[in-house]
Amino acid sequence: MKQRILIVGAGFGGMWSALSAARLLDLHGHTDTEVAVLAPQAELRIRPRFYEPNVHNMAAPLDALFDAVGVTFIKGLAERIDVAGKQVDYRDEHGNSATLNYDRLVLASGSKVARPRLEGIEHAFDVDAIEEAVRLEQHIKSLDKLPESSARNTVVVAGGGFTGIETATEMPARLREVLGENADVQVIVVDRGSEIGAALGEGPRELIAEASSELGVQWRLNSTVASVDAEGVTLADGQRIDARTVIWTAGVRASSLTEQVPAERDAQGRLHVDRNLQVIGQDDVFATGDVAYAAVDEDGNYALMTCQHAIALGRSAGNNVAASLLGVEPIAYSQPKYVTCLDLGAWGALFTEGWDRQVKFLRDEGKQIKTQINTQWIYPPAANRAEALAAADPLIPVVA
């Protein structure tokens, strides 16, 4: 009977895990192990781009790619992990319950925006999932059908981190495309930080402030949202902002499936893993992407919930889970090079290097790099067996 490597999730971490596992098995001429991916869709959803318009186009099909490398795709939603029994219960595309056994498990079920239990939070949009980002886009396109008002022309973005900044700085152009070039639009970022762009560090901070000023994006600092309704938000200090569009970007949490694995988790719900991405205390379970709390170097830095880290984490997890079945040496995950490329709308973009985020390129130069990242570098390889397996080498550096 064939052994099975089961990968839960088809995001960046899951897709690259599948390709990398298939690569190592292929290198060893091993045909007695099935690499299977369990996910709701056989597509890579390009989540880092969901702040942009035309979101419905931002999913890359994976069927042909998986077929080319011999990966089995199983359409369904994982619901229960039984580590002791080495099986995963899931609901298939018809809503029926089913079970998959595994010899090794790679948990790559991703993360979600952490919506707090606030009054009226259901009125807030987000750009976390493709369905929600499409709903936001449809809402923005419908604004011109409403009577003109300050609330109609105002967008509140809750959270001034990476996603919040990219969403907010893109928004003035998106609003004016719908409401007219001369429309008096307002985009307001509500952030608990004391400085604009504080979450991005000292290097980029002044440039984020400059871009915000140039684009007309306002910041309400030292502030939090207390409640949301269909007409706007009320802040914790009682201040009212009328807005027909509220977008929640504050906070991300790992998939709740991590709670079913008996192991230590960090504050965001990520499973502690060793340098081979094996869950500490679990011989047969690996974690990757946004569900893995993984050291990237020897200096105390840990992977962030980013596409950049998920790609390399996936390649490493897939290689090492296959290595554990083959009885060959794993390749320890290491990703000491860290960059960011922050889109700042019509102002341009900001490219930084290092954990201290030293600015290297900005405005048009930065935008060119961001465009390459968003349209080329983060997409799946072609459905060509040799090319796809070569691209899954865990020793390939990632800059995205």
Automatic annotation (TrEMBL):
State one molecular function term (GO).
NADH dehydrogenase activity
Q: Which domain of life is it from?
A: Bacteria
State the InterPro entries in the record. Answer: FAD/NAD-bd_sf, FAD/NAD-binding_dom, NDH-2
Q: Give the UniProt keywords, A-Z.
A: FAD, Flavoprotein, NAD, Oxidoreductase
One Pfam entry for this protein is Pyr_redox_2
Say if the entry is tagged with keyword 4Fe-4S: no
Q: Does the keyword Cell membrane apply?
A: no
Q: Where is the FAD/NAD(P)-binding domain?
A: 4-312
Family statement:
Belongs to the NADH dehydrogenase family.
What's the name of the protein?
Putative oxidoreductase
Q: In which organism is this protein found?
A: Metapseudomonas resinovorans NBRC 106553
Query: Which lineage?
Result: Bacteria, Pseudomonadati, Pseudomonadota, Gammaproteobacteria, Pseudomonadales
